[in-house]
Amino acid sequence: MGAPARAIPHASSRAAVLDVVRAAGTISRVGLIRATGFTGATISTVVRKLIEDGLVLETGRAESTGGKPRVLLQLNQSSRYAVGVHLDHSGIAYVLTDLGGSVVARMTRAGAGTDDPPAVVQRMAAEVAALIDGVGVDEARVLGIGLVSPGPLTPASGMGPAPPIMRQWEDFPLDEEVRRATGLPVVLGNDATAAALGEYWSGAVSGSSTFAAVYVCTGIGSGILINGIPYHGSSGNAGEIGHICLDPDGPECWCGARGCTETLAGPAAVVARARADAGAARAAGLDDDGGGPRRSSVAADFAAVARAARGGDPGARAVVDRSARYLAVATRTLANVLDLDRVVLTGQSLAVAGSLYLPVVQEELDRAFFSRATHPVAVHLSTSAATAPAIGAATTVLQSELVPLQPGTRIPGDLAEPEQAAPGPVGA
Amino acid sequence: MGAPARAIPHASSRAAVLDVVRAAGTISRVGLIRATGFTGATISTVVRKLIEDGLVLETGRAESTGGKPRVLLQLNQSSRYAVGVHLDHSGIAYVLTDLGGSVVARMTRAGAGTDDPPAVVQRMAAEVAALIDGVGVDEARVLGIGLVSPGPLTPASGMGPAPPIMRQWEDFPLDEEVRRATGLPVVLGNDATAAALGEYWSGAVSGSSTFAAVYVCTGIGSGILINGIPYHGSSGNAGEIGHICLDPDGPECWCGARGCTETLAGPAAVVARARADAGAARAAGLDDDGGGPRRSSVAADFAAVARAARGGDPGARAVVDRSARYLAVATRTLANVLDLDRVVLTGQSLAVAGSLYLPVVQEELDRAFFSRATHPVAVHLSTSAATAPAIGAATTVLQSELVPLQPGTRIPGDLAEPEQAAPGPVGA
């Protein structure tokens, strides 16, 4: 008869208040009451505790409209930190952010390559320690590690299925091993979703209600944000545009399907086509007598083809243009299904080739996006492609302290009745 | 630095409480406090008003765990009603539901066909009046009309762009005209999204977190529900799987793109291919000397082809199988992008041909859904395909009284401070 009752998610009013303080910059207690809808009693209780814990500072007074001036509150940025790690075949990026999400340290190290996962985890633990020590942050103030890598990820057992070049990571208990090696809590995530979150926190896409980060590194994926909240799908594997089918009878993909965008247009496909074109191969230094050391990764070879294309080599340009047209069509399909209003092109490969892809994707959406009569889809290049996934990974840790007032958030009517904060579903 | 603050949507605690009562069947005031997180004062204020307005009834007492027995509350089903209208080229379906979403009256009349919109609106007004009078419901108790039709819809100006066979409706001020003709408030919606909502309210997909209704009537679309809440996208046009590209070099679609699923596999494509096959055309009565009156719509011709296929005509079967394979691939793309856990096949055309499509779609998802190692995608046929969109349309009206506790809903801490119920965004 009626719809089944929905489970009502737990919410932390402390985290909600903290997020409003962060977003506001400075705000009074009265402002917090207006912004959160909490009672004055709730706000004063929560704020007192946040000040005791050192997360919030009182800072001067604002002229009030009559009555005594109001004390302003602001986030104590340096009271807590989070580590973000982006683990990929071709590189591992690290960032340390403060409670406000500002990057206070960053570094990039060699990728996972073909090393055994346990060895890579040991190295990551040492590199995370170096990141934290390097800026003299007390590890007791580090909330944890956000670790993202090519998906799909299962929280308990890492990547499954893993992309072919990271096959040895499939079903490796990534979070458990990193937690043991570093002594810090670990939150796993998908690199493309983290990239979208990183773009959002960087303020690059403010005002967008339905935003996707089209993410091309070694493979092709996307991260989806709805009103600033990551959309994960039923198992954390949403946004797999690399496996949008563009040709039901096309070549087989490692995922088991045919004609996937990644197989037709991904960096590996671009490199293979460039190798098959003598001129393009020579221009990109892909021919065996091209001199110089063999490159270690598909991403590096792809970057070489992109440079040759930008340099004017017609063969390399043709190969990249073909890839761009396929990616543009897949992006249009994503936009048609989600009714997107904004797309950011990001990821290591688009950081080097984005200028060649951007006009093709924008033209495709302007010409053929289904709802183009209603609104355009704005496409732009990421300005932080190299670190966006690591920054997004760190923010997922910060959000354990700073839960935004987001879809699903429920606010208890009175903190003095904590058992009301997390009610169970009603009826059935 | 930090993420931009989000706008905080308005919430009605009255509607939230009413939805919990509906979902629970019967519940005590104490149960409502637990379920909503509101204070006891808030609950007693809201419940008193709901009883005064006749929306909620007190019904007996439950044995309480010590203390005096608790009064149970339940929805007064017959206190309010809503009309749902599904306007399509080939038929117009009407339902009248009570406050609990139960259908108390339904009827189907001739479709919009090629008639002028104003004439169709006058007829709809008369048919809505007949629907309400037929069961002797006081029109004062009818909250309004939910009107859904092929999208995309713009609330102010109807369909834009409209599918070719309903071109005369493009930019017709549908809501305004129907409001004037009926004297009832009108809420416009997309038929595929309404179909998904109808399936959800019918309880057919309980337990699904990310569900899509694949909707085939004259065209192909889909409705997406995330935790039971319709996903509309940035302009109400999400879910357009009819315009998922399956062949970048394919035939041009009315939407302006090439190789869209609807153009390759929609009912019109199936009928055209059947006409081109002498045997199939004869079996389906599509050949000009097939006898019988010419059918009025693509949907009716498609139904004839489907019947011929089910009857064993090899040509008709081949045409339908080809369509099913394309729809299966488009459904897999939708599932990969959204990480779906459930799909329902619905809409007038799948009501007649669903048994031919279901195994093909399920096999495709079992074999090639990207995250199949993590979870399956369950596909089933709608049991209420003919009325699901109209029922979903009616529920959108009910939700003006019954706002579920849903993503985006914010709860004021204290009803005595109403100005806190709808705070504006903080910071920027």
TrEMBL record, chains A, B:
Disordered: annotated span: 408-428
Keyword Manganese in record: no
GO molecular function: kinase activity
KW Kinase (keyword) present: yes
Cited InterPro entries: ATPase_NBD, ROK, ROK_cs, WH-like_DNA-bd_sf, WH_DNA-bd_sf
Keywords: Kinase, Transferase
Record family assignment: Belongs to the ROK (NagC/XylR) family.
Protein name: Putative NBD/HSP70 family sugar kinase
Originating species: Streptomonospora salina
